[in-house]
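Subgroup meeting minutes
Present: P.N., E.W., G.H.
Scribe: E.W.

1. P.N. recapped why we're keeping a running log of single-chain structure predictions: easier to compare across weeks, and new members can see raw inputs and outputs side by side.
2. G.H. added today's entry (159 aa).
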Amino acid sequence: MKIALILVGKTTGKHMEALINDYVERVGHYVGLEIKVIPELKNVRNVPVGQQKEKEAELIMQQLKAGDEIVLLDERGREFRSVEFADMLSHSFAQSAARRLVFIVGGPYGFSPRLYERGKSMMSLSRMTFSHQMIRLLFVEQLYRALTIIHGESYHHEG
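Output recorded in log:
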């Protein structure tokens, strides 16, 4: 199984991008990770939020494949401890018929109803609000952490 991360909007800031890329490279030692960036919508100041979410959903849906297992990163999603996230990944690897486990970070207003219907589940990295830039970094670090837990390596410490 491969993992895909679909993001709306590019990463800004070379330091943030370097940190994200460091963890993406680390994750690559364990599993194929594909990152697809959906361009931010332009000239949307006067476009209703619902229409913006629908347009983003259209662009995101173009990246999905039949049989993908979809997890939306959403503030209303389930929160996991790192070990629980590792268990969820391990279960998905072992039990899912899907070829790709796809995590999606939406735009500034979240997801359209169409994506909520398509998603298998929702996951939250925190009850706090973070910038989309920070969520990317937090997610790839947690993905790396989960993979080291699955492989019994010493990156994560419980105690």
